Amino acid sequence: MRYLIHFSYDGTNFNGYQKQPGKRCVESEFERALYNINNHTETKIVGAGRTDRGVHARCQCAHFDIDVDITLYKLKCALNSLLPDDIHVFRTETVDKDFHARFMVCKKTYKYIINCGEYNPLERNYVHQFNKSLNVESMKEAIKYFIGKHNFKSFVSEEVIKENFEREIFDASIDVNDSKVTFSFTGTGFMKYQVRNMVGTLVKVGKGKLEPSDIKRILEDESLRNLVTTIKPEGLYLDDIMYNI
Amino acid sequence: MRYLIHFSYDGTNFNGYQKQPGKRCVESEFERALYNINNHTETKIVGAGRTDRGVHARCQCAHFDIDVDITLYKLKCALNSLLPDDIHVFRTETVDKDFHARFMVCKKTYKYIINCGEYNPLERNYVHQFNKSLNVESMKEAIKYFIGKHNFKSFVSEEVIKENFEREIFDASIDVNDSKVTFSFTGTGFMKYQVRNMVGTLVKVGKGKLEPSDIKRILEDESLRNLVTTIKPEGLYLDDIMYNI
């Protein structure tokens, strides 16, 4: 049977989602738990995507195949009892044998939270502590340039080698709640550092170091990628994943 | 000069506020920082009160005397640069030589947050993960019995030896926000485990294991202290301290 699971995690103490030898990663914690559940058989888990070190997930998804007879509720309980307390599976479902957690993603939402107020030690790993004010109006004007189909190469880590950097962003917005500024992006998919680079560059607009229209110029002209800044990971959340099933 | 400082901390990685040999405590972090600021002189800090291991503070206060010529703003910056990132001083002020951060407290507010919804790994150290529903109406009825002047001996750790267990609670209330239940207590002062014992026992009312009026019976009859339950520390916040100055 193929299962799709929905889970959240605190990225603080993980070296990202993807398995790396000798490092604490979300994927390896799942493989260890599934080994036990699936009659001591090595069981591969296929995530909807990766998150970097320090990035959190309110909703990440993954699929795997196991051969044991177990109810969805018992599978959820078994996973949660075997996983560490910084990962939590909140939903389990069965899917068709041809379902794929990465290839069949229809939309993803990422959020990034910045604290423009006083430093808060209680949220130091969960909200980026910027602790200065930002011009929200100009960032709201700037973020609109990301909406639509664009070649995002200027906003992707230079390590990434791909044929196609075109992605579509359906919605991009900024919400302000007291001294917290939340950036929200919904799109077909996001490449390595893309959200952190978009937010880092929007912050330069909010500081008055770039004009809102510079976002458009950078998107159109890859030679301007030196204007792009990567913001720290601790304010970033993989917030939601939607499938067409 | 005597200074009064207001600060917050994340209690997760501290063995409480009070200094203990060989353990990481809030007080010793301050004494280390003040030693540097006060020309390498051992400098005592007097806190408004202690918090247990794992308990957080949104506003804790303390006073100390230092002999260096420093502005309030620079003192704040110096402390924050020397303190670890899970403590933050947000206000510094000068006070009279006879001001005392513990003896002159007029009111304190403690809050306790319980998550009655799905387990949240991102808040596991900041909200008590109860993850089941509670009867809020009966807890709201029960919490009223704590308001007023009472002998709180039944609700204080048995380790505590005092002549007088009488304290006054000015306000006690319960707020519900989605699946989070927040208990709030404002009073003259709270003794060891008092808030955790009051909340732990209110939770028994919320589970239907005690009647609201049992709170009154326990307050009046110390032989019923076996009905009192101590709840875990991670949902507890020292929220505010008020002085009459």
Interface with most residues: A-B, 18 and 18 residues
**What is the helical fraction of chain A, as a range of percent?**
10-25%
- Biggest sheet character of chain A: 10 strands, mixed
CATH superfamily of the largest domain in chain A: Pseudouridine synthase I, catalytic domain, C-terminal subdomain
Total separate domains of chain A: 2
User: What Rg of chain A is obtained from the alpha carbons, in whole angstroms?
Assistant: 19 Å
* Derived structural class of chain A: alpha+beta
Q: Can you tell me the residue ranges of chain A where pLDDT is under 50 for at least 5 consecutive residues?
A: none
Strand content of chain A: 25-35%
Give the CATH topology of the largest domain in chain A: Alpha-Beta Plaits
Q: In sequence order, what are the helices and strands of chain A, one letter per element?
A: EHEEHEEEHEEEHHE
Oligomer: homodimer
CATH class of the largest domain in chain A: Alpha Beta
What sort of overall outline of chain A do the alpha carbons produce when their principal axes are compared? globular
Number of strands of chain A: 10
Cα end-to-end separation of chain A: 17 Å
Task: Name the average pLDDT of chain A.
Answer: 96
CATH architecture of the largest domain in chain A: 2-Layer Sandwich
Number of helices of chain A: 5
